[in-house]
From TrEMBL:
Keyword vocabulary terms for this entry: Acyltransferase, Cell shape, Cell wall biogenesis/degradation, Peptidoglycan synthesis, Transferase
Keyword Acyltransferase: yes
InterPro entries: Acyl_CoA_acyltransferase (IPR016181), FEMABX (IPR003447), PG_Glycine_Bridge_Synth (IPR050644)
Protein name: Peptidoglycan bridge formation glycyltransferase FemA/FemB family protein
Sequence similarity: Belongs to the FemABX family.
An MF annotation (GO) of this entry: aminoacyltransferase activity
SUPFAM superfamilies assigned to the protein according to its UniProt record, in alphabetical order: Acyl-CoA N-acyltransferases (Nat)
A biological process term (GO) from this entry: cell wall organization
Amino acid sequence: MSHELKAITREEHLRFIADRPSVSPLQVPAWGEVKPEWRAESLGWFDRAGRLTGAGLVLLRPLPLPGPKRYLAYLPEGPDLHWGTVDLAGLLRPMLAYLKGQGAFAVRMGPPVVARCWSADAVKAAIADPRVRRLGDVTPTAKDPGAARIAGRLRALGWRRPGDGGGDGFASGQPRHVCRVPLAGRSLEDVQGGFNQQWRRNIKKAERAGVKVVRGDQEDLRAFHELYVETAERDRFTPRPLSYFRRMWTALTAEHPDRMRLYLAHHDGDVLAAATMLTVGDHVWYSYGASTSRGRDVRPSNALQWRMMSDAHELGASVYDFRGIGDRLDADDPLLGLLRFKIGAGGEAVEYLGEWEYPLNRLLHRALGVYLSRR
């Protein structure tokens, strides 16, 4: 059954989200205010009875070209639809037609569909096995056959994963693999019982050393950012400016007071680690983390994460999401240490369907891919 798609108001979008157990924080209306270089719009899918059955936040990035504005349309970790429906074309074709009318030359989306999961024990065993190179080579603990059917339908409709068939997809977006700690139906004792011995020792060590984790406010973003810049220099990535986090805080907390939280780990008057936490429905995400090289022996990062998990549990969250992990398990992979840290907290590795593109103007789409590949 074909759906009608049209722009919806912020209030309509928020009412829809309020009835959903989990929607990505990148799909709430306020996220558009975090990205001022993009034009943001809330889209709604309506059935024949006029009921709102799906919604998504689309970000439209203009190309710096003369003449009529052309946009890259992006729905990060969205839209929120009934992805298992047989008539997937009836949901996606109206979206493509609408965005083409808005001047989009390509559309990129990230269906929030889980394909495979691996338990913490399965990942630990794979890391210890030198013959295993990638997570995908490991037999999953759980697998959703519906995800493969959705992927097949997307390909039949002309959608492709970035880089498929020539490598002309535009820059990588949100992580396809994440680590999640289940909280639903578990006590905090159960959650901590799922930690490995190193995690439990580190939490006790932080307690004995007097590490105190506190919630911060907007004024504490500067202290967080100083640690974040140090982290960026140490891990060799380009940091976002302080203004970005201030914009996040203003936009997200205005939408919901608990949408964004800031936590800081103190020891002897010094801030050693800090992190942001995002909440939508019963899903909590660890968003940005930062730490200094000072005081690592008192394990502030473990104390920080444990406080955030505990608060997520108190909020009634069903899952604490550590966000992105790499899928390579080679001993020399630079992301392996991060995977070990997250899996050590009893998290399961989760693979989503990943991001998909549809070129509405193949020439512009290919040109952008070539440009980004040479940056």
